[in-house]
Every structure is written in structure tokens, then in C-alpha cells.
Amino acid sequence: MENSKVTIHDIAKALNIDSSTVSRALNNNSRVTQKTKNRVNEKANELGYQRNLLASSLRNNKSNTIGVIVPRISRHFFSSAIAGIEETAYEAGYNVIICQSLEQLSREQKIIQTLSENRVDGVLISISMETKDNHNLLILKKNGTPIVFFDRHLDIPGNSNVLIDDFQGGFDATEHLISQGCKCIAHFSGPQELEIYKNRFEGYKSALEKHNIELNENLIISSKLMESDGIESAKKLLSQPIPIDGIFSANDVAAIGAMQYLKGEGIKIPEDIAIVGFSNEPISSVIEPSLTTIDQPGFEMGKIAANLLLTQIKDKSGSTVAETIVLKPILIKRNSSKRLI
Amino acid sequence: MENSKVTIHDIAKALNIDSSTVSRALNNNSRVTQKTKNRVNEKANELGYQRNLLASSLRNNKSNTIGVIVPRISRHFFSSAIAGIEETAYEAGYNVIICQSLEQLSREQKIIQTLSENRVDGVLISISMETKDNHNLLILKKNGTPIVFFDRHLDIPGNSNVLIDDFQGGFDATEHLISQGCKCIAHFSGPQELEIYKNRFEGYKSALEKHNIELNENLIISSKLMESDGIESAKKLLSQPIPIDGIFSANDVAAIGAMQYLKGEGIKIPEDIAIVGFSNEPISSVIEPSLTTIDQPGFEMGKIAANLLLTQIKDKSGSTVAETIVLKPILIKRNSSKRLI
DNA sequence: AAAATAAATACAATCGATTGTATTTTTAAA
DNA sequence: TTTAAAAATACAATCGATTGTATTTATTTT
Asked: Which residues belong to any copy of the HTH lacI-type domain (chains A, B) (predicted)?
């Protein structure tokens, strides 16, 4: 219970050798003979030695830690992405610090400050809904900490991103509704400062255009896409004298809120109104009717993003070319949109 | 882009004073005059100085960081608990490192190792399903790092815990099923090494006993309580020639798996079989029929646990008495068990 | 066996911030 | 004005690990 802080100096003293030799022995340096290494390792075990990573990182100017910032860890997409990130990072010997901005710019700012103070080697971030520019990230930029965006990104030249094709996703979702006979399709969108929501919206518009359906501004409702926003948005739609027969929501959560409300109002889904979401939350396959949605491969995106980041970290010359990898979204057809057989 | 590493020495040099004065100025020490403090702060801003927490923690032998280990962050209960932990910790000026064991003992071990190497000031943990003793935690114990268990705990004398009354929860869930007319109630349990599952099981037994229902060992199915386990368990139950009319599952996830399977088999819930879960996952209120369950106040538990831990951290004398706080579970009655009106 | 080379280890500085002690400067008292 | 006391700042060691350089020891060559 007592040997709280065994250091290499304690090992050195016990073996009557120098601490530099101990350090090299522990790091398996060729300048130390195998015999000495064995003695050191034994003694280290015996004393319960544990490397002090603070000291090590300080000296090496490298923490072997990357920071991950997501809006909220409870979202399935983000926790999958984190799983992918962790797998890749751990394999490469990196630790991961997970942080959630809870969609607040101020929290995001504070997190970045802390990560920077802790000298993380790189940052993976999916920005909050309040984030409109890279102001927050300048701290990191300034001291040369690599950043890779995944999913919710900012369009910064020279920065790597891992995205899915939100335009295509929006297009596919909308065209699917059209293919099911919908003529009057509303869209729940998120903050337009976020590329992903802008692009999903663009996809929606493009699909309408292709099928000669006129865009009706009254059918576009922007919000933060929480469940309550979905309810509110659905309410707003019903209050208008427009015969809506389809909704494409830019995320599942809002879609589910809307579904619950509409069901409560006696509206039949998909017969009266067909609904398509975005993200493929686990809940979406369970709800009744099950929700048609666009799948985002979170785990895969996390792995790719972490790999991009690690490449940049390892390349101390900073000559790595920024890369933007765009994954294909996949439409998952379920019952909430099944109007034709 | 260039001033990657501004240190107090750079500030000192720029102002032609000593770095010790800079350090004290930045820390608002009374030994430095206000005028100097102002000059230092200005220059620090100008140069974009950022404290190196690695150096600071090393010198102070205090990282102002706590580690949190949970089985998986995607579970609603755990992400709520984390939210509570973060709120409390940040208020007290502590950073939080979130880690997930993914129910694997080996991962838990590695995480603890890393947290210890990073010299966290304390650890909050909800153990994995594979964890059967405190072996993993000895590293922390040895160097005197305080540990507080929340929810999934080990019974270690002298250790603080924040729990809910799992026995009561199990009892209430089971008695509720009995009150709805169930006579033959199965139980999905988790690993019996975990106190929580043992206690939920005990509650189940106690409720049966109170109502003079004989315990049938064939109705007790242990698993890791994943969704697939719920399906398997339901299958197993149906394969037996026993007229089951109720299931108390030790978590919602397995309950939902079972529900899906049973519905697929044409069994009516709750008419044929009533089901009660445990945890109150968000999905449980949305599924049809909505799932009766036991609510665990995750956010609150997180706050309490963090407070207990911070108290122990601040008390360097180590004289803080271990405390076990048990919260009351709340039965949330929904449709999956509504057989009588 | 002496000299030359290689191998193993010791010494000392460093990473950046902090803090006890010493020194200088300022202010107050005599 | 001189001296004592207080205030402000400088010096130097420290936290634990790492690493370039110097030194010692072992091995090889002649």
C-alpha cells in the first residue's frame, strides 16, 4: 500500500546502477546488456514500478494521446465512431481522450483548451451545432496539432476530413419517397452552417428538381433536430393547409419525434405520411413502423479518421497532403416509407 | 503557426524577469505585485502562452484528472452517469478521461494501467461483466488512488459505492408482474459474479416467495444480456413445455431482444407473456408495446459518485470514511406488462 | 602483453512549471 | 539620513524520464 511512487531512480539505487541505464533497459535499448535488462525488469516488477507518463511525455514532447470531440457520446453514430477510433489508436499505441461538447460552442472551446494544455498529439472532431467557424480550433492550429474532422466538418483548406456523401444521402432519401408516390415532401433540416445539413438539404432539393416537383419553402423546417424539435416541426407542418405526404428528416431522432406525434394525431405512417430519417440509430429498427433511414458507417469512419490523423502525427515534416475521404451512404428501406409494393 | 511552445521562460525573457516570478504571477500569487501580474498576463496573451499541464502535473504530483471506466458509453444509463460525473468534475476544476471496457476484463486491465501511468487523481468505475475480483484494481490501490464504484460494483471493504437498490428493483419488477396476474415468471439474469445481477435475482426470488410461487430453476436463464442473448433466452423458454406468462429481464436490452423474437413467433405481449426490463433505456418507451422497466437515475448517480471521489481526493490524509449510497429504484409501468386495468 | 576497438555504463543536461531560500528593492520607522 | 522591516524578485533545486557525451570495462587485434 505504501510504495506509491517507484521511479527509475529507486530501481537504480536498488541495483546500484545509474538511472539512465535503467531507463534504457526499460526501453529495451541496445546500449544495455541483456543481463542488466533482466535485472532491471525483475526489480521493476518487484517494486511495482510504473512509468510516469507525465514525465515521459514532457521529456519526449509527445503524449501519445489523441483527443476526440463529439457532440454527444450517447448517439449511436458517435459511439460507433469512437469504437473505431479507439481500435485504431490502441493498435498504434495511442491513448484516447473522449470529450463531448453537448452541442455547445463554449464547451467545445473549453475542451480544446484542455486538450491543448494536455499536449495531445492530435484531435479528431465532429463539431457542435453552434460551431460556425474554425475560431475555436486556432489554438490547435497555432501549435501545429493535427486535426481531422469526421462527419460534421468545417470546410478548411488543408484539413483532412472523413465524411459521408450527405448530398447523395439526401438525394437518395428524397428520391425514395418520390418513388413511393409522395408528391408533397417536407424536410426537417439542422443548422445551415453545418455542411452536413446544408448538403442533405441540397440533395433533397436536387431530387425534387429531377422529378419536377416544385420546392415549397414552407415545407422546410430548421431546428436542432432533437426529439422535441421533431414533434414541434410535425405540429407546425400539420398546422399548414398543405397535404403533406412525406417527410425527409435530416436525422432519425427528429424523425422519431415526429412519428410519435403524428401517430398520436391519428395519422397513418406510411399510408398518410411516409417518413425517412438519417443516421440509422438502433431505435429506428425497433420503432413501429420501423424507420427508413440512411446508414452512416460510424465504426468505419472512426477507423479511417484515426488512421488519417495518425499519419499526420507521425509525419513530423508536416508535408502530409490533406485528404478528404467521402463514404457512400446506404439507404435502408423499412416500413415507415413502404407505400408501394 | 510557429510559436508552438511558448513557456514561462519565454515570457520571463521577454519581460526581463525571472521565470519563477512569471509562474507566481500566472498563479496569482501574493508575492508578485499587481503591476507585474498585469505585464505578465498581457505578454502571455500576446505570445499565446498555454500552460503545459504535463509539466505542471509532474511538479505538483497531481494531474487534476479523474478516470471513468464504464462497460460501454453507448448505454443510456452510462452516458447519463458520465454527464453527471463531468458536470461535477468540471465545476471542481477536474478533467475527465472516459474509457470503455466493452465488458472485457483485459481491456479493463489495460485501461487501469494507462490511467495509473497517467497519474489520474482518482477513478470512477462500473466494472465489466468479466470482472470477478479486485485484482485489476490493485495497481490503483497500491499507489493510493481513490476508487469509487457506481452501479456495477465489487464488495470491497473500505471502498465507497453509489448503487441503486437492485434487490428492491428486482422485487418490485417481479411483484408487479404478479400483480398483473402472472403465475409463471421467468428471469433473464446476468453473470452472478456481479452484485447487481445477484441482487436483482434475489429480489425476484423474494417476490416469488412472498406470493407463494415456487421457484423453477428452468425459468432462470443467465447470459450477458445482449440483445441476441434476449432472443436466445426467449427461444430457450419457448422450447420448454412450461406455460410462461411473464418475464423479468435484468436489463432492457435483453428484454427487447426477447420481445422482438416473441412478437415474431406470434406471441402477444402482454396478453400471453408480460415483460419487465431494467434500466429504462430510451428505446424502451418507444418500442411497441412500450416496455415496463426500472429506472436508474444515471445522472444523479454520476454526480454523487463524482462528489464522493472528489472528497476522497481532496482529503490527502486518507481518513475519509468509505460510504455506500443506495438509491431507490423506480418502477415505470408501461404497456408490456399491462394485463389488468 | 600492449594497443586498439567495441561494449557497457555513468554523468549531466533537459523537458516546463513550481517553490523554498536568498537577495535586492522599497517602504516605514527611528 | 540611517536602520529595520516588509515587499518584490531572483536563484536554484525539484518532479521523473530521457539522451548526448564522457568514462570505464571488456574484447579483439597485433
From this structure: 6-60
